[in-house]
Specification:
The chain is an alpha/beta fold. Helices cover 43% and strands 13% of the residues. Helix 2 packs across helix 18, helix 5 packs across helix 6 and helix 5 packs parallel to helix 8.
C-alpha cells in the first residue's frame, strides 16, 4: 500500500470536499498524511486521518484582495499573493516531502509552490480545485469578471473587448513566477492561466451543466461537487432550528472579506417578509452584528442541515457553498466581490437557478428584489440538483487516484 502526502490550502472550503476521498484511500489500506490549516487538523483527525498544521508563513500569509477598488485591482492582488506565497508553500511542502517520502502527493492547485515542488520531485502527483478555474476555450467568455455566456459571435467579441484589462492581469506576475519555475526545471508559462492546464491530474470539483460545456484539457477530470462536512454537534444551530417561518440562509464565506454589509442589507430588506434570516458569519465575529435584530447568527453551523429547510441561500459566491445549496435544490442569490465569485455568480444566472447582485452595487432594495426573484426559481434549482451527482464524487476521485498509483507501480 502507498503513503500519500496531501498538501492543502488553510481554507476549510478548499479541503472538506476532498475528505471523503482521503477516507476511502485510508480504508483501502493506504497511509494518508495531510498538511492543512490549524482549524482543519482536529477535524481531519476526528475523520480518522493523520494531520499536521501548515507552517505559520503559509497559513498566515495575508490576502487582502477585498480591499481592491475594482475587480482588476483585486485580481492583481490575488495573483501577486499566490506568487509571493509560493516560495513559502514550496519550502513547507519540500520539508514534508523529505520527511514522509510519499509514493504519491495530492496538492491544492492554488498552492503554486507546493504544486511546482511536487512536479519537480518526480513523485506521482494529483492536484485538485474546489474553486472555478480559468480554462480558455472557444465560445467561453474570458475568465474573471463574470461575463455572460453567449452563442452570438458579436457578443463573444464584445466580451473579449470588455475583458482585455482583466486578461492583462494574468500576465502581470508571470515573469516572477517563471523565474521560480525555471530554477526547478519547469517550463515557463505565457500567463498565469496556463498553470491550470499544465499541472497534472487535476480533480475539478464541479461538473456540467453548472460549469460551461467545452472541450476540457486532458489533465482535467470533472468529478462533481462534494458536500462533506464534519458531523454536526448536538448543539449545532442546523439541528436545532425551530422557526415558524421558512429560513433564508446567508453565508459570508470562509475567509474574511469585510462583507458584513451584505448580512445587514439582507436583514433590512427582508424585515417585513415572513422569512427567518439565518446566517453563518465565519470570518466575522457575530459581535459585529449585536445591534442587528431579526436574524439568527452563528459563526459556524452545518450548512447541509440548514439547507434541508431553506427557501433561498445568499452567498458571496464560494463555489462549494453555492453547489451545496443547489444540490439541495435551494436557489441562490450570489453577491460576488473578489476571486472567482463573479464567475460562480454568472453560472448561477446562466443556469437560471438564482440571481446576482454585485457587492460593489449592493443596496437594500437590490438585494431584497434579487432574493425574492431567486426564491421563485425553486423548480429550476431542483432540476439542476437532479443532474448533480454529488454522491458519486468521492468514488470517482478514489478510482482515478487508484489508477494513477497502479500505473506508477507498473
Amino acid at each position: 500500500m502507498a503513503l500519500i502526502l496531501v498538501y492543502a490550502e488553510a481554507s476549510r472550503s478548499q479541503l472538506y470536499p476532498l475528505v471523503p476521498v482521503l477516507q476511502k484511500l485510508s480504508e483501502a489500506g493506504h497511509k494518508v498524511v495531510v498538511k492543512a490549516g490549524r482549524y482543519c487538523v482536529g477535524v481531519l483527525r476526528e475523520a480518522g486521518l493523520e494531520a499536521s498544521p501548515l507552517s505559520d508563513y503559509v497559513e498566515f500569509f495575508r490576502l487582502d484582495d477585498w480591499q481592491g477598488e475594482n475587480y482588476e485591482q483585486s485580481l492583481r492582488m490575488l495573483l501577486r499573493y499566490l506568487v509571493q506565497r509560493s516560495r513559502y508553500d514550496f519550502n513547507d511542502f519540500a520539508a514534508a516531502l523529505r520527511y514522509d517520502s510519499p509514493d504519491l502527493v495530492i496538492v491544492n492547485a492554488t498552492c503554486l509552490g507546493a504544486c511546482a515542488g511536487a512536479i519537480a520531485s518526480g513523485v506521482p502527483t494529483v492536484t485538485w480545485s474546489t474553486e472555478l478555474l480559468p480554462f480558455p476555450s472557444s465560445g467561453i467568455p474570458p475568465f474573471g469578471p463574470g461575463l455572460p455566456y453567449t452563442q452570438s459571435k458579436f457578443m463573444a467579441l464584445a466580451n473579449w473587448a470588455r475583458s482585455s484589462s482583466v486578461q492583462k492581469c494574468f500576465e502581470a506576475d508571470v515573469d516572477d513566477f517563471n523565474c521560480f519555475l525555471l530554477k526547478l526545471g519547469i517550463h515557463p508559462l505565457r500567463d498565469m492561466q496556463g498553470w491550470f492546464t499544465t499541472i497534472p491530474n487535476l480533480l475539478y470539483f464541479t461538473s456540467e451543466p453548472f460549469e460551461y460545456p467545452r472541450q476540457w484539457p486532458s489533465n482535467v477530470s470533472l468529478v462533481g461537487p462534494c458536500n462533506w462536512e464534519p458531523p454536526a454537534p448536538q448543539n449545532d444551530m442546523g439541528t436545532q432550528l425551530d422557526s415558524h417561518y421558512p429560513p433564508i440562509l446567508v453565508s459570508l464565506g470562509c475567509s474574511y472579506q469585510n462583507n458584513g454589509d451584505l448580512l445587514r442589507s439582507v436583514i433590512e430588506a427582508m424585515r417585513s417578509d415572513k422569512y427567518e434570516i439565518v446566517a453563518t458569519t465565519c470570518g466575522i465575529s457575530t459581535q459585529e452584528f449585536k445591534e442587528e435584530q431579526g436574524a439568527t447568527l452563528t459563526r459556524f453551523a452545518s450548512h447541509n442541515q440548514l439547507l434541508k429547510h431553506a427557501v433561498c441561500a445568499v452567498s458571496c459566491g464560494g463555489l462549494c457553498f453555492v453547489q451545496k445549496a443547489l444540490c439541495h435544490g435551494v436557489p441562490v442569490c450570489v453577491v460576488p466581490q473578489v476571486r472567482s465569485q463573479y464567475e460562480v455568480a454568472q453560472r448561477v444566472v446562466n443556469a437560471n437557478v438564482g440571481t446576482m447582485v454585485d457587492m460593489r452595487k449592493l443596496s437594500v432594495s437590490a438585494i431584497g428584489s434579487a432574493i425574492r426573484k431567486a426564491i421563485g426559481k425553486k423548480k429550476q434549482a431542483t432540476e439542476l440538483a437532479e443532474k448533480f451527482d454529488s454522491e458519486g464524487t468521492a468514488d470517482r476521485c478514489f478510482h482515478l487516484i487508484e489508477h494513477i498509483l497502479a500505473e506508477h507501480e507498473k
